[in-house]
Amino acid sequence: MQYSEKVMDHFMNPRNVGEIENADGIGTCGNPVCGDLMTFYIKIEPRTEDPDEARIADIRFKTFGCGAAIAVASMASEMAKGRTLTEISSMSRDDVANMLDGLPPVKMHCSNIGVQAIQEAVKDYLKKIGRDDLAGRIKGCPKKEN
Amino acid sequence: MQYSEKVMDHFMNPRNVGEIENADGIGTCGNPVCGDLMTFYIKIEPRTEDPDEARIADIRFKTFGCGAAIAVASMASEMAKGRTLTEISSMSRDDVANMLDGLPPVKMHCSNIGVQAIQEAVKDYLKKIGRDDLAGRIKGCPKKEN
Amino acid sequence: MSTEWNVYLDNNATTPTDPRVVEKMIPYFHEISANPSSIHGAGRRARDAVEEAREIISRLVNCRTEEVYFTSGGTEADNLAIKGTALSQNERKKIITSEIEHHAVLTTCEHMAKFGYEIVKTPVDQHGIVDLDFLSKSVDENTLLVSIMHANNEVGTIEPMGEITRVAHRHGAIVHTDAVQTTGKIPIDIDALGIDMLSLSGHKFYGPKGIGALVVRRGIRFEPLHHGGHHEKNKRAGTENVPGIVGLGKACDIALAEMASEEERIKAMRERLWAGIDHNVEDVRLNGHPQKRLANTLNVSVRYIEGESMLLNLDMHGIFASSGSACTSGSLEASHVLLAMGLPHELAHGSLRFSLGRFNKDEEIDHVIKVFPEIVRKLRAISPLYKDKSGRH
Amino acid sequence: MSTEWNVYLDNNATTPTDPRVVEKMIPYFHEISANPSSIHGAGRRARDAVEEAREIISRLVNCRTEEVYFTSGGTEADNLAIKGTALSQNERKKIITSEIEHHAVLTTCEHMAKFGYEIVKTPVDQHGIVDLDFLSKSVDENTLLVSIMHANNEVGTIEPMGEITRVAHRHGAIVHTDAVQTTGKIPIDIDALGIDMLSLSGHKFYGPKGIGALVVRRGIRFEPLHHGGHHEKNKRAGTENVPGIVGLGKACDIALAEMASEEERIKAMRERLWAGIDHNVEDVRLNGHPQKRLANTLNVSVRYIEGESMLLNLDMHGIFASSGSACTSGSLEASHVLLAMGLPHELAHGSLRFSLGRFNKDEEIDHVIKVFPEIVRKLRAISPLYKDKSGRH
Ligand SMILES: Cc1ncc(COP(=O)(O)O)c(C=O)c1O
Ligand SMILES: Cc1ncc(COP(=O)(O)O)c(C=O)c1O
Q: The complex's ipTM?
């Protein structure tokens, strides 16, 4: 099992670590039983007329997990910043893995939950603003891992 | 599989090799199928009143066989020389093996046919002098090897 | 980050071969390289070397020379013990092992289940000691084999083999022990302990990789795993790995001479390492038995953070440790050993094994003590659990 | 008798490890000695070395890198191929092999008979070439495996693998070949030949003992023989023998570069040896195929005398040869290979194998040619068959 240089860079120097006080959305994926857990905090630049077009203004995370999990969280946070909620909802695990120049096969599924955790944060935001309808269309965490 | 020094000595310098013209008795044991075959030639110093007390005056052999077979034939020939026929008939394979400081286990049975071949030569002699009764009491070759 | 350090603390995964072992092996690659089965002089020299090594090994574990069968390592020895005894009979259909065995035993036992064997795994207490009551209740007339490791590779806990054999022999079961982690590290008297079969592996005690042995007491029947030529009294076919065997012999030789003093030296380093961690890092716990434990093994759980991320950070500082067994490092499951000892998943995931060895030095331990608290601090700073649970930060 | 000579002509039993191989291995004993399964930097260096070796091996036999599985040698590879394919399925119940296989294949096949497999042994002609008609008639929809060696270890005859695979694949049988004697000696293109599984062993071509490989083409299913950790993609558990693997890689590397020129050089020596024997000794015969034969192998029958006694005499002159395979040298049975080729027992018992190699020199051959006729004369002088059959003496 070997990590790419990009993974190692994000692992050793994770971007956007931390929390956001009074975050607009908070999302958590994973489970310490699996050995990986991450929580994202987002600040939203709102669009009242069309919430799907709102953007992620700021993003922070905390991670309990292996090297891959930390790198995934860091990379996913960078990728999400400035994106619209529509864009976030169509992001996939593979996008993150690709940006990291790949992940070891065993790490693909369990540790690669950054996108889902961010989507959970988005769902949280949408629910908070009363748009459960829109929240329902976003995937978020895989069931058994949450 | 390792031979004792005595085996190697008898193998490299076998005693009593050859044939005896007009031998009093000839005996063969073994079978090329097994990879071992030996023929003994004996000259007898007779005792007409008691043929069992006759002695082996001279003995020669020829051998097709492995190192053990050649050493066994040589050692058996030395042991037999000067012995009475009674003594010969009570000699055993183990006597030869012991005098050789042992034989490798795999060689104990197939190659250790020196005594039997000499006993066959003695039987041959006894039959020639009309004493099939005495010949019948001597063991000679194991059945399946002759 | 670049570092001058090269601190190898993964000696339970494998040890560097002792240079004295390598030196002893060298002539057997080229000068004395014949096949020990060949009858010529070159073959006989190789044979002599093999038999000399066998004799030294028998002294290390106190068995008869002819009870030593060479294998390619610990895994093969374990497989041969379990499958070999099973194949040699058809009466007893139960195999008892423990929950904390190495995969070489566990997976092999699980494989035997396909052939109609009932597999029973004895639980362990919080220190990793097998439950003798459970064992005692499980062993019966249907029990072929009790296979319990001598010491555990992850936490170092040493099992009470003498008591285990007593319980097993009451019902005529054969006792196998995976002594891969104890051979050469602590004294083994197979005779006094009543062990019937014992696995050992060269590369775990400064011998070469790719060589090991199964010791089988006289009278214990087993079938070979490798069929072929008449090697090892028809019990293990394959041209003998002469340099490996010679190296294994030398490793035993060195162990016989140095085991006691080394144990003391290594234990002192390990205690210092643990003290250094325990004093400088909050919320850590020691795994394994406090006393009945290999002198070189230190398994710690560091709360709120995960093992691999610690390992990778240590790696950046030139410190090589592991999180459990090397074989499962690619997997995502928490250590089955720690879980069996009752650790919650989260703590099991946050565990590290430092396993010390012959070539470690005091200043290396100092380096770890200096670097480790900082690593923990850094990882806890990004852990959602740390904040949740402690309220600090 | 004492001698200065040290003429090793038993290279089919095992070869001396090439000093270049040993040199390449040395750093992997101590400096780069970590477990390749470990995730730290030390482990990754070991892993890189293992994967580099795998790549070189794949080039030697023209397979994909990931099709190479390391084993402890040829015997284990043969066992893994046969037992592994059998264990992975439950439909086909026939295994076809040949009468002249190495015991690693023969005994393993015979072992499988206990598990309900029908074992068919293909006969060979007087040169040792398998009977393709017989094979063709034997292969059917029930045939799981056809295991036929690439070249025979006793006589050197090379089998028509391309035709064998064509016949076998017609009915969907898997083809395994024991290429222990051909790897590194003659070119192997597993792809062109259509072989599904191939066994090789390091110590037969100047690599180390205790290491080999089974090459398994993508898509061929097999079960492991050693259960345990996740090594070799779960197909062969046990800590990798890194120095052995590195050495095997280096042996392949050298073979790739030097195979062709070496074959020529060795063949010339062998032809000179045969001419020397044939001209100076009456009643000898060459065993094996006159052309389709390994360049290094010379198997001769010397009428009227027995093999071991010749060997021991050669040994006294510092010449190390063999009578058939090393594994059976302790047994009393005539070579099953020579008997299958139709030799009478007596001739089979009187056979010798000279197998030449990389480290043999011309003057060594001269020494044999000088000494051998005298040995034959001496033994014939005491042979009862010589007199009987020829009337001379
Ligand atoms: C307890 C234990 N048993 C068995 C093994 C397997 O030994 P090897 O790697 O030599 O096959 C190991 C180490 O890998 C071990 O620690
Ligand atoms: C044709 C053949 N197959 C298999 C083997 C077994 O190989 P190993 O001794 O490496 O187990 C040998 C040699 O011993 C051989 O010559």
A: 0.93
